[in-house]
Amino acid sequence: ASALEELGIPLSISSRILPEYREYERTSTIVINAYLQPLMGRYLKRLTTSPERGTRFSLRVMQSSGGSISADLAANEPVRTILSGPSGGVVGALRSARAAGFENIITFDMGGTSTDVALCDGGSIRTTNEAVVAGLPVAVSVMDIHTVGAGGGSIARVDEGGSLRVGPESAGADPGPACYGRSDLPTVTDAHVVLGHFGGIGLLGGDFPLDEKRAKDVMSRLATDLTKASGKKCSVVAAAEGVVSVANTNMERALRHISVERGHDPRQFTLLPFGGAGGLHAVELARSLRIPAIIAPTSGGALSAIGVLVADVIKDQSRTVMLACDASSLRTLPHVFKDMEREERAVLRAEGFSDKKQRHERSLAMRYRGQSFELEVKETSGAVAAAFHSAHRERYGYAQEGSQVEIVSVKLRSLGLVEQMRQQKLPAQRQRNKAKPHEQVMAYLSGRRVSVGVYRRDELNAGARLITPCIVTEYSATTLLPDDVEARLDAFGNLIINV
Q1: Tens digits of per-residue pLDDT, 114-171?
Q2: At what angle do helices 303-310 and 87-100 cross, to 10 degrees?
Q3: Pairwise CA distance, residues 467 & 460, whole Å
Q4: What structural domains does the chain harbor?
Q5: If you count Cβ atoms within 10 Å of the first and of the last residue's Cβ in the chain, which end, N or C, has fewer?
Q6: Neighbours of 34 (CB within 10 A)
Q7: Three-state DSSP string of 28-45
Q8: CA–CA separation, 107 vs 121, rounded Å?
Q9: pTM for this structure?
Q10: Residue 256: which H helix or E strand, with range?
């Protein structure tokens, strides 16, 4: 292999990328890497040698596990980037949550085509080695993110059975929703326009006006289709409310999947919505799951980009060991981890990270004897078996404490700690009274047409308490707050909402 690499032939070597057993998953992962390697290699070469880019900065690429890697590693092991799109948002969300004092969060990233949700408990991001892409297993470390086809551009229609469907088909950004002025497709965004949820301002802080008439026209046609299907009169407003409700149901299922179905109580978490459309749906989703609080970060539409910018450099390494979980094996494990750490320390030093700017996290993939799947447990010396029983009970509802436990593989996550940007604090609100809205508009909330205040987020100071119902607009996102919630801005500009 080394001789072929010296000749410039791109190689994907499984013993380097995924030195674990399970031949099918390992083969699938390496074949995907081999397909991507020439394409990614050419692209990154053009990008890194472009005269316009200059030579002042080194290029890093986001990977699926939530950290960045060098352009050279991304070119050689592109499979590590295959699900990197949503991971930056989770990193940015956790950063915002920590600044606001929240450790347990459920992230809710609603964009134009899809919604990505993830659960972070104890201030840590969950990862998995069981991702599936196009029906093929990808066994490298990826963030444990669940995706559904529901976004601002999701198309609404009446199916053959007469039911209202929303998504997974999307109008995308081009032609986009009907209110963009280039299509006749009714979407979730058009429904919000009809209901007045953008405050008449449009998108991008008013720089992108929306065609309200076109949105009403497509919703009117959808209402006609619903009337024909049900035999009952459906108004334009009812059709729009139905579209939002169906979209919420789809997204609620995703949130339940990563919380309730995995043994977590949503009442112990805070919902963190972002993406351009996240704030429009956050309150209703929090209520449906009985989540008590929401933190809507500033610049929610750009949070994924912020996450990529502040992500640490991460190297994931694993080795199959197949050991019984007994005293003899536990004496062996520290030596295995030390060997792995020695390798990764050298790699991170070469990338400019001193030992003080490194962190190494140990974990074990474990199972009961006879099982064909593993759970990852943080390595805790002699308490490994008890930690596994606890993790199994949390995930599956039971534990077999009398059964033999096996350690299938050891895992090491090595981090090069990137210097973090300081989050600027906002000027404090001088008055204790609630902040006055910029203007009042009419909008539909819970089937009623009511007067709603509109706040411009960049005009609010820390400590400002909002008068609800209201709409909070900013350049990259919009947040909708009904009249029975409490909302205030914290020191960093995060909108803290008590549901």
Answers
A1: 999 999 998 888 888 888 888 889 989 999 999 999 999 999 999 999 999 998 999 9
A2: 90
A3: 12
A4: 1-311 (3.30.420.40), 318-416 (no CATH), 442-498 (no CATH)
A5: N
A6: 15
A7: HHHHHHHHHHHHHHHHHH
A8: 11
A9: 0.87
A10: helix 236-258
